[in-house]
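Reviewer 2 asked us to include a model.

Predict the structure of this chain.
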Amino acid sequence: MSATWPHIPQLQGERIESFGNIISNTNFSTIIFFFIILAIAIMANRALKSKKKSKLRTFFLSFIKLADEQIRSAFSNDKTFSRKYFPLIVWLFLIVFLWNLWGLVIDWVGSSISGDLFYYLRPIHSDLNTTVALALLVVVVFLGVWVKTHWGWSYAKSFLFNFTGDWIAQKCINVFVGWLHFIGIGSTVASLSLRLFWNIFAWIVLIWVISYLWVLMTANLFEFWRFLSIPFWFFELFVAIVQALVFALLALSYIWQAREEH
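Predicted model (structure tokens):
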């Protein structure tokens, strides 16, 4: 790692000249990541279909059982509704957590072995485009459930012109509240995407700055800085788990709220 200056990424992925500026380092990281996920999915499928008992099969079954129980509990033990959105919630948790884990690998290799890696790869959630896309997915599902539950026209009217109430002041207040809910859709996208983005991006910058400082302070100690930075990597792993759990729980709560009356 070069000790001239810590690498601070841009808010969006940088274009890779070697690939004709067609894809960014975020895109390239995503492509490699999905090949890894495909391998894990094939391995999990074979383990679950196998009749032989194994630690891998037990792990996947235990994870599915735990996730099913937690999601059903969050959906007030509505088994039909929870099973319907079980794949989405679990997918969101896994994709956020594994993306964060993949980002830790990129961070460690780039800061410990070669900083040139950052030209081709970057942690996926450190790109604002990625977190916005995930947030939009959650909001689209949230709106779809709400429209399906409360019918399209009723739903649109509650947002744009909810002129209901016993007296004129109450009707005007309901119209204003409806507009606030409409604006809240955009704030939901912003809160979901920015919460995940800034947590991951901030920790990436922190890790790179800490690594850079350790390099300067231990330059004559045979790169002893790598051992000193280990606790920060474990804490970032904890942050990765928490962020994945928070994102999945928020998505779950939005979908459940979509069934309630506006």
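Residues 72 and 196 are 25 Å apart (CA to CA). The longest helix spans residues 168-217. We have added this to the supplementary material.
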